[in-house]
Amino acid sequence: MTFPKYPEYKDSGVEWLGEVPAHWEKLKLSLISIEKCDGPFGSAIKSEHYRDNGVRVIRLQNIKKYFFNGEDAAYIDADYYRQQIAKSDVIGGDLLVAGLGDDNNAVGRACVAPYSIAPAMVKADCFRFRLDTKRAFPDFLAYQLSAGAEADAGLLSTGSTRSRIPLSTMGGRIVALPPSHEQVEVSAFLDYETARIDALVEEQQRLIELLKEKRQAVISHAVTKGLDPDVPMKDSGVEWLGEVPVHWEVAPLGLLSRQIQTGPFGSQLHSHEYVEGGVPVINPSNIVDGEILPDPSSTVTQEVVERLTHQRLSEGEVVVGRRGEMGRCAVVSSEESGWLCGTGSMKILLSERADPDFVSMFIRTPLVRGLLQIESVGSTMDNLNPEILSRIRVPVPPIEEQRDLVEKVRLTERKTQRLISEALQGSELLQERRSALISAAVTGKIDVRGWQPPEGSTASSEATQTEMV
Asked: What pTM does this model have?
């Protein structure tokens, strides 16, 4: 889809806006606002003021780039609101701007308050601008302010840990406005196009989830039933496992292991012994999707490793997380040999009857993860111990069949991962297209005047159906 440019442009004087159409007006946000406010200081709203219903409190997590996130609703007592903080009120159509940012949410992002939001108020660092709707259409400004949030934050924000822009400075942000009817046209165009792109992104996300589910189903079936649909089956004698191929054995993991050992006790490895750039210590958080991902900040000196030499990991061992989410495990590679088993982990040295990758795949199946979750002990945190792990019943094909199944599963995983990567790339390209389209439309780089949605589509939003008065 290509769009024409405007016939004439002028320099906006704002770097991120660049040149804008010659007939657009450049002015400060405060000049098109009837009034503006910040939410009350945090001390003005205490836990005892919150209720299950009452006056909706709009918080930073509700103000997203371009849209209002209605999840995680919070309310305060209506009487307290009326008596103490009613000046921070919000009505439908107000422009909401975030005065505080973080790594995932840019300061200065904006959205429009839903038309059904009242009674509502903003909390601290959430700004409400009530616009002069004869001059400014809220949806257009939410698009434009959000598109320029990162650029403006670099010039206007303060704060060493989180970007912050005070209300007075936020009111001084420069906006470029076309005539009111044109703002409505641009907003309607973006509502339609972003909804269409969002639907495509959602399709990609659904595809990714389906591929992940298929990958897990293949793994689970391979390590519990095999991949030969014609093989005779027998009752495994384990209710949760069901039938297994007739030539397979079923044995407790303890009988398939030469050793199951927990990591060092806390008293054996102190926090002051951690250094930068040392030997990695592997804890549950370092075990992700069957891989070991070391943390550069969680390493110890060689001297500590020598003192805890019996906790060193060896190639072919299976390292298992024993705290938190159950079933996290991975096989130690040659590169990872010599690293240290952490306090929150265990290591398994298997006998020649069991292939480490096969056992690791089995432990990671949802069936076993759920079982370990139930069997684990601990009043505040699930905690797996060698006794529980050793009791887990494991299907045992002949060793060569185990290795063959692992290779076939890995082949399927590689194909599935390639499809997942393609879907992720497609999703990222769509998101980039979305951002570029919004930026181009709200800065006048493309002329969408006269645009009409395809016949039969439902393009108009609640906001764009509302005429500017």
From this structure: 0.79
